[in-house]
Amino acid sequence: QVSVVETGGGSVQPGGSLRLSCVVSPSDLYSVAWFRRAPGQGRAGVAGFYATDEERTDYASTVKGRFIISRDLASNTYYLQMNDLKPQDTAIYYCAVDRLTGGSLLLESRFRYWGQGTQVTVSS
After folding, report:
1. What sign for the dihedral angle of Cα 109, 11, 75, 24?
2. Measured between alpha carbons, how far is 28 from 9 in angstroms, rounded to an integer?
């Protein structure tokens, strides 16, 4: 069984930054993606990281240039650095994990293992 635990949510003013963390166990070469569910909306892919030699990343157009996904292999921790946050970034953020090869990283149907979610609120 794969364990996925997110931390790092909170409240921030527009233009601020937050960093979300996702700790995954046991250790393996996982592909990881962050999804979010805004109030009244479905869950949408935000950013993904492919566990390949290329270490490919994918970003939704709404966050490209503002969010950065990365990992620390030694601690099995994946990060989502969120900069220049906007009120429309307010959502519950979920970390999703699986052993994937090829295809899009931003499709929730591809991931079997999910964290419990962490709330991010952007408001003045």
Report:
1. negative
2. 25
* Residue 105 tokens, joined: 């990283």
- Dig out the tokens for 29 from the structure: 């070469």
Distance CA 110, CA 59 (A): 16
Largest CA distance in the chain: 41
Spell out the SS3 assignment of 44-92.
EEEEEECCCCCCCEEECCCCCCCEEEEEEHHHCEEEEEECCCCHHHCEE
d(CA 68, CA 10): 18
pLDDT value of position 28: 85
Three-state DSSP class for 28? coil
Instruction: Give pLDDT tens digits for 78-115.
Output: 999 999 999 999 999 999 999 887 788 899 999 999 99
